[in-house]
Amino acid sequence: MSKKIIILNGSPRKKGNTAALTAAFKRGAEKAGNQVSEFFLGDMNINGCKGCFGGGKDCNSPCVQKDDMDKIYPVYREADIVILASPLYYWTISGQLKTAFDRLFAVAECDPDYRNPRKDMVLIMAAEGYGFEESEYWYDRLEKHLGWKSIGKVLCGGVMNVGDISEHEKLDEAYQLGVTIH
């Protein structure tokens, strides 16, 4: 059965190493018959969450702030799987990804009990180094607290400059992960 997949790409470089990983994943997932939508968050106008608890009144546009999150909300609501993609910034995910993810709380506000919709999830990251521990900790706690299910992680260290990832074995790992989704 085909799945709907949303990629939230928190890299500011559309042709960078994180984007190469998401492209490989996307090729594999589409080959397996899935529908994949990718958002390059660095190109979008997304404001930080105001913590106002004013969302959820209109589930088609759940946040009181009107910005590019309105492009993401309908795709997110329909998605079976959420791909969290980011370069490693100061040992965690990028601000672009964190800002967009925080704003997804407006969707939970559509539920009277503030329940997040159930999703499967994947973490895809690229980095100069190999210190993914804080990102994995955040991701693992997110999975637990949201009640989501992780179906994989692709963490590629040793790739700082654009193109460093070329021919890297992690590209095949990302592709193979995509192919396994049915």
Summarize the structure.
The chain is of the alpha/beta class and 182 residues long.
* Helicity range: 25-40%
CATH class: Alpha Beta
Number of domains: 1
Q: Which outline best applies?
A: globular
At CATH level 2, the architecture is 3-Layer(aba) Sandwich
Biggest β-sheet description: 5 strands, parallel
Alpha carbon gap, first and last residue: 5 Å
Number of strand segments: 5
Number of helices: 6
**Structural class category:** alpha/beta
- Tell me the CATH superfamily: Flavodoxin domain
If you average the pLDDT, what whole number results? 96
Question: Remind me, CATH topology?
Answer: Rossmann fold
Please indicate the percent range of residues in DSSP E strands (runs of 2 or more).
Answer: 15-25%
Radius of gyration: 16 Å
Element string (H = helix, E = strand): EHEHEHHEHEH
Instruction: Please give the order of strands in the largest beta sheet.
Output: 2-1-3-4-5
* Sequence stretches where pLDDT stays below 50 over 5 or more residues: none
Describe this structure in words.
The relative contact order is 0.22. The protein is 35% helix and 19% strand. The protein has 182 residues and is an alpha/beta fold. Helix 1 packs parallel to helix 6 (169-179). A 5-stranded parallel sheet has the order 2-1-3-4-5, sandwiched between helices. The protein has a single domain (4-179), classed as Rossmann fold, CATH 3.40.50.360.
